[in-house]
């Protein structure tokens, strides 16, 4: 919001340097993004947060300045003479939708249309509002000055002089002041005549009743509109205006009569017309005042410094809060109607802190009763990250809000947001890989980075009662070369075995035991011949595999992408296994290699399991060291080279013991249909 310094000084006689004023306002919570020079005057460009609608106007900013420097705040002049017949004789207002408009005020003005005085036109242009004519300019001027929007209807163009506040009807059409013919929905509020809509409630007027050169009598309207109704209507119509910007954030319920009186005062001041007697105030029953208590001890506790009670009272009364006496050790304040953001004691503490000065609060270290370490689950999560980074992966963080279209490849049910920020953030993610890691990969490819290894630890969501179900997961995605290019070796594309190796390393780091894989229960977005379910005992942890070619094509991937996604909640919550140390072996190990030809569809884990079962107690380890497919190995078969490691902790092994174990292993493999090469 832009504030002209000379306009501000009409309400508070502040004479500090402009740079000092900008700095003090920023420290008080009204950030000044820029100061624009304008001769001897200046324009402050303020970034007013959405909860501070009371400062989206010159007088509201002046109130803050008056408290900052202890200066008196001049009130808005709203006195004017009335003449002619009563307003109620020529204008009738009926509120048919009190849930849309609790209060609607109107005055009837006799006007002489023409250009506004130069001082009004200049001020409007400075803040970015285009001057039109004196009547319309005054409605805009007062909105910028005191914050409450209003609208002027040509009374002669209101059928029978009757205004009705109601919800729009299905298929009803209205051409707004911007010349666009709009089709209304039932939950869009309107100000209507006897039959047709004349204006969009709280957003924009209609062309059929706009003020023109022939206008002689104006029905001036200022209302309080329910914020949620205006927010929904503006979003439905994709129409944001200065009026809707203020109403949807909560305007002052007591603002309508003040706004109409201020406009009538300025109309008389510039000699452009007069007001007829009486204010039409429909639904204007005063709301019960809101109160909040403030304890000096609470101020001290929250801020970490003592603020004198008299100083706190001075700040709050300057901001419009009125004291209502004391209750026990707390002072009770009546909250002004323009401060819809204040309802609790801590809100009052914030007001005191802003104007007492954050720089006045000493920097101290809070006392600590003791030093605590990480929780066990945090230690294990840190170990997960360390393992991923040690494997050469880069951690990424993606949004939990995702696009339904991009997440559609994952069939898991998703939770839709009731009020999404955009269509691209309409649902909660049900997977880390889709679309989060895939989106990161696609972005890297577009920037020319082809070799990508990334991971993410985060939460995914699913339907649940009363709240959505949450689950912490680990997602991994590899694409391109498995290792950085080097002259000593040819590049190799990352495959599912690289992902499996990373998960095996993680299992070893966390003491999870050996992970198993199974071909059933795979998600539909993975390659059916290059994927598997990940099991820990009988517990399904997740999946690993190559992404389906159709999915890779849809995401514009250049190389095959391999990924994995596993659940972490159970792993992180499991008690940590105690570290076990063993002395270095005193006696030598014995190794034997077997070359096996087996069915290509047989998992290597099954082969290792058979070898362990047949090898006996002296067999300490089994490892697949080579795999080969192709001639002379028959089609559908694969050659595996397996290294067997034998050891006894208390003596040297005899050759006969090892050979006896190897023979048992060979017999077991042959019984399973495998062939032993080299015999």
What's the helix and strand layout?
Blueprint: E1 2-4, H1 5-8, H2 18-27, E2 31-38, E3 41-47, H3 58-69, H4 87-90, E4 92-95, E5 103-111, H5 118-126, H6 134-146, E6 151-154, E7 162-167, E8 173-175, E9 181-183, E10 189-192, E11 197-200, E12 204-205, E13 217-224, H7 227-237, H8 242-247, H9 255-269, E14 273-275, E15 280-282, E16 291-295, H10 296-303, H11 309-318, E17 322-327, E18 330-334, H12 345-356, H13 376-390, E19 394-395, E20 401-402, H14 404-407, E21 427-428, H15 433-446, E22 452-462, E23 469-479, H16 496-510, E24 516-518, E25 526-536, E26 539-547, H17 549-554, E27 561-567, H18 569-573, E28 590-599, H19 604-615, E29 619-628, E30 637-646, H20 655-671, E31 675-676
Parallel strand pairs: 4-7, 19-22
Antiparallel strand pairs: 1-3, 2-3, 5-13, 5-14, 5-15, 6-13, 7-10, 8-9, 10-11, 11-12, 16-18, 17-18, 20-21, 22-23, 23-27, 24-25, 25-26, 26-27, 28-30, 28-31, 29-30
Helix pairs in contact: 5-6, 6-9, 10-12, 11-12, 13-16, 19-20
Give a brief rundown of this model.
With 679 residues, this protein is an alpha+beta fold.
Describe the structure.
The chain has 679 residues and is an alpha+beta fold. It has 5 domains: 2-69, 2-Layer Sandwich (Phenylalanyl-tRNA Synthetase, Chain B, domain 1); 87-282, Phenylalanyl-tRNA Synthetase, Chain B, domain 3 (3-Layer(bba) Sandwich), CATH 3.50.40; 291-333 and 340-358, Phenylalanyl-tRNA Synthetase, Chain B, domain 1; 376-573, 2-Layer Sandwich (BirA Bifunctional Protein, domain 2); 590-676, Alpha-Beta Plaits. Helices cover 30% and strands 26% of the residues. Helix 11 (309-318) crosses helix 12 (345-356) and helix 13 runs antiparallel to helix 16 (496-510). The protein is elongated, with a radius of gyration of 38 Å.
């Amino acid at each position: 919001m832009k504030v002209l310094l000379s306009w501000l000084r009409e309400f508070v006689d502040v004479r500090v340097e402009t740079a000092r004023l900008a700095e003090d306002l920023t420290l008080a919570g009204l950030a000044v993004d820029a100061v624009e020079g304008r001769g001897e005057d200046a324009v402050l460009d303020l970034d007013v947060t959405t909860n501070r609608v009371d400062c989206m106007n010159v007088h509201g900013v002046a109130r803050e300045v008056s408290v900052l420097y202890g200066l008196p705040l001049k009130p808005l002049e709203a006195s004017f003479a009335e003449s002619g017949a009563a307003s109620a004789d020529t204008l009738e207002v009926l509120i048919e939708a009190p849930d849309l408009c609790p209060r609607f005020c109107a005055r009837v003005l006799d006007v002489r249309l023409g250009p506004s005085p130069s001082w009004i036109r200049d001020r409007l242009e400075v803040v970015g509002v285009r001057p039109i004519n004196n009547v319309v300019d005054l409605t805009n001027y007062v909105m910028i000055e005191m914050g409450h929007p209003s609208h002027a209807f040509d009374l002669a163009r209101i059928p029978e002089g009757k205004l009705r506040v109601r919800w729009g009807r299905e298929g009803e059409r209205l051409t707004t002041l911007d010349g666009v013919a709009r089709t209304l929905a039932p939950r869009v509020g309107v100000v209507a005549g006897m039959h047709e809509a004349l204006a969009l409630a709280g957003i924009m007027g209609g062309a059929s009743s706009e003020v023109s050169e022939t206008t002689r009598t104006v029905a001036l309207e200022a209302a309080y509109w329910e914020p949620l109704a205006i927010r929904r209507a503006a979003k439905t119509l994709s129409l944001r205006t200065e009026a809707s910007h203020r109403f949807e954030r909560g305007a002052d319920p007591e603002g309508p009569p003040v706004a109409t009186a201020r406009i009538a005062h300025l109309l008389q001041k510039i000699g452009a017309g007069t007001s007829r007697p009486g204010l039409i105030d429909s639904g204007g029953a005063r709301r019960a005042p809101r109160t909040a208590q403030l304890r000096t001890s609470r101020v001290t506790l929250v801020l970490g410094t003592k603020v004198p009670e008299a100083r706190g009272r001075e700040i709050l009364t300057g901001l419009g809060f009125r004291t209502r006496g004391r209750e026990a050790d707390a002072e009770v304040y009546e909250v002004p109607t323009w401060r819809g953001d204040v309802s609790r004691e801590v809100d009052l503490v914030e007001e005191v802190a802003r104007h007492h000065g954050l720089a006045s609060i000493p920097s101290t270290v809070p006392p600590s009763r003791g030093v605590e370490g990480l929780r066990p689950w945090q230690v294990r999560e840190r170990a997960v990250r360390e393992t991923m980074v040690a494997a050469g992966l880069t951690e990424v963080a993606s949004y939990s809000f995702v696009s339904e279209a991009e997440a559609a490849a994952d069939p898991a049910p998703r939770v839709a947001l009731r009020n999404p920020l955009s269509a691209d953030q309409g649902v909660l993610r049900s997977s880390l890989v889709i679309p989060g890691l895939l989106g990161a990969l696609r972005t890297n490819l577009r920037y020319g980075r082809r070799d990508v290894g990334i991971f993410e630890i985060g939460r995914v969501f699913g339907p649940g009662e009363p709240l959505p179900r949450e689950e912490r997961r680990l997602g991994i995605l590899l694409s391109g070369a498995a290792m950085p290019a080097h002259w000593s070796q040819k590049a190799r594309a990352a495959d599912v075995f690289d992902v499996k190796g990373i998960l095996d390393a993680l299992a070893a780091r966390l003491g999870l035991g050996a992970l198993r894989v199974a071909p059933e229960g795979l998600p539909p977005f993975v390659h059916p011949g290059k994927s598997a379910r990940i099991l820990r005992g009988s517990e399904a942890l997740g999946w690993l595999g190559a992404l389906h070619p159709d999915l890779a094509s849809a995401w514009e991937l250049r190389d095959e992408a391999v990924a994995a996604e596993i659940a972490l909640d159970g792993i992180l919550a499991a008690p940590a296994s105690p570290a076990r140390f063993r002395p270095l072996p005193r006696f030598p190990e014995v190794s034997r290699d077997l070359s096996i030809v087996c069915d290509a569809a047989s998992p290597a884990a099954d082969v290792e399991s058979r070898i362990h079962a047949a090898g006996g107690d002296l067999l300490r380890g089994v490892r697949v060291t080579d795999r080969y497919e192709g001639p002379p190995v028959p089609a559908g078969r694969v050659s595996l080279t397996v290294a067997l490691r034998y050891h006894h902790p208390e003596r040297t092994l005899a050759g006969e013991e090892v050979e006896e174990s190897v023979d048992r292993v060979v017999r077991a493999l042959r019984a399973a249909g495998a062939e032993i090469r080299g015999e």
